[in-house]
């Protein structure tokens, strides 16, 4: 008996039927272009959904769906979610589908985990619940052995907001990776995954969550997972939001210079007073300089001389180091540099 089966047996007595939520006002789109069909969503739970439809897909068939509000005309990630679901039953008025998770017995803890996550995070609505299901389905594919570690993380106090942030990180990583096939299946180490979700879920800004998603994506490999990305994850964990703002801006400026002058361009990234204040979101220069010094001490900015201050002039050097550029590349989901 595998370890994950043992975990599931401990969880199984506490499991109950997943609570169904009414999905009035939501539809599921299936197909593409002129063949797109719209089906009303009757209800949804942490395990699946029921569609009011005349379609009768075969049991076991995997269907690609896009969930959105009936009134949603704008294609935004906040208003719609694309996912896959497997047909499990027919009803008199429609079809029941389950969210796609692995079918093997070792996947049972993931189903329990998704139910627990949904209960503790109390998703606000249909799309929140669907996003959570899609995120955990992705995580179960890239790191099938992480169920117990993620369960510990949830029971350790992952709040509703942090759960939503963690889901955003997972979904961002999924968009950066190739679609799963037998030839492109990727895997990540459980310890690295939980570190990213635990630390990254504190990020309130979605663009910082996306950088964490890039780190999760680059922690996946086709061969046996290794710890090559661990140092980058540990390094990024030491940055507060203000540090990330400065670091990201420095790398954006630097990569623009590189694209124009070539990869060995020595041109420094210099900011004037108003510019660095706007980047940092602060008017306190002393605090900003301490934040910049922290980035230098971590090695992601070049160790340069102190800022130059004159009566009518101020400038500060925030040129990223080679390490910083490589970290930024990983945060964008790139393994081999920008």
UniProtKB/TrEMBL annotation:
It holds the Pfam family Abi_alpha. Gene3D superfamilies: predicted glycosyltransferase like domains (2.40.10.220). SUPFAM superfamilies: PilZ domain-like. GO terms for molecular function: cyclic-di-GMP binding. Residues 19-106 form the PilZ domain. Coiled coil: none annotated. This is PilZ domain-containing protein. It comes from Telmatobacter sp. DSM 110680.
């Amino acid at each position: 008996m595998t370890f994950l089966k043992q975990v599931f047996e401990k969880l199984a007595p506490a499991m109950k039927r997943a609570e169904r939520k009414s999905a009035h006002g939501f539809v599921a789109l299936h197909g593409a272009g002129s063949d797109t069909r719209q089906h009303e969503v009757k209800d949804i739970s942490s395990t699946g959904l029921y569609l009011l439809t005349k379609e009768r897909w075969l049991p076991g068939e995997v269907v690609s769906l896009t969930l959105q509000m009936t009134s949603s005309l704008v294609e935004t990630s906040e208003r719609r979610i694309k996912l896959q679901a497997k047909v499990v039953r027919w009803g008199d008025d429609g079809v029941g589908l389950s969210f796609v998770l692995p079918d093997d017995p070792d996947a049972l803890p993931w189903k329990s985990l998704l139910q627990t996550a949904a209960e503790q995070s109390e998703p606000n609505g249909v799309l929140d619940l669907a996003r959570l299901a899609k995120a955990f389905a992705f995580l179960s594919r890239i790191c099938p052995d992480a169920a117990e570690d993620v369960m510990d993380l949830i029971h350790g106090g992952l709040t509703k907001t942090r759960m939503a942030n963690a889901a955003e990180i997972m979904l961002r990583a999924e968009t950066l990776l190739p679609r799963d096939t037998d030839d492109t299946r990727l895997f990540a180490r459980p310890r690295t995954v939980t570190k990213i979700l635990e630390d990254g879920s504190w990020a309130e800004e979605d663009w910082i969550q996306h950088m964490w998603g890039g780190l999760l994506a680059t922690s996946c490999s086709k061969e046996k997972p290794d710890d090559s990305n661990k140092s980058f994850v540990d390094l990024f964990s030491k940055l507060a939001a203000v540090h990330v703002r400065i670091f990201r801006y420095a790398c954006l400026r630097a990569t623009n210079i590189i694209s124009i002058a070539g990869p060995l361009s020595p041109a420094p990234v210099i900011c004037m007073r108003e510019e660095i204040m706007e980047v940092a979101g602060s008017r306190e220069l002393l605090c900003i300089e301490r934040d910049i010094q922290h980035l230098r001490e971590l090695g992601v900015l070049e160790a340069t001389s102190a800022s130059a201050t004159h009566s009518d002039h101020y400038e500060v050097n925030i040129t990223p180091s080679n390490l910083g550029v490589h970290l930024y590349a990983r945060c964008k989901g790139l393994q081999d540099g920008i």
